[in-house]
Amino acid sequence: MCPTVALPFPSVILMTRAHITAAAVESTVLNTSNDLKRRKQNLIITGLPETDGDGDTDHDEQLFLKLCEDHLPVKPLPVRHSARRLGMKTDDRPRRLLIKLQSEDSVKAVISAAKSLHHSDDEYVRQSVYINADLSPAEAKLAYKKRKRRREQIVRRQAET
Q1: Domain for residue 114, yes or no?
Q2: DSSP state of 86
Q3: Domain limits at 34?
Q4: Which pLDDT tens digit goes with each residue over 72-126?
Q5: Which of 25, 50, 64, 85 is the most buried (most CB within 10 A)?
Q6: Among candidates 139, 114, 124, 130, which has minimal Cα distance to 46?
């Protein structure tokens, strides 16, 4: 007969908590990984005007394509019916537009070409339209800190001269 080992009740609870915690961590890592992979095909366009209709994805896709055609050297293909506006509608400015492209390479090409928007002949586009990657909240916070540090370094260098 095998000897039985009696475990005290709290040890069983700790083992169960550790098991649940490991499962929760694994689930969180998988969800985060999937979220980052999904976001790599997305772009966020700030400043594109909205129509009065609600949820007109075809119009938003056409606006994006026209922006690219008129102001960028790249002509990406968005995934059909993937465009959607983010946030609550306000009277003072258009909501950001999230649009999914066919590939990560298309996203990289558009983001690289988007710098040319700052030199556009159209004053509204030059001052108000921005194209960025779809960043997770953690990535956005890191990017903000990096921009802030860069600005502070510029101010310090200017103060030294």
Answers
A1: yes
A2: E
A3: 9-39
A4: 999 998 999 889 999 998 888 899 999 999 999 999 999 999 999 999 999 999 9
A5: 64
A6: 130
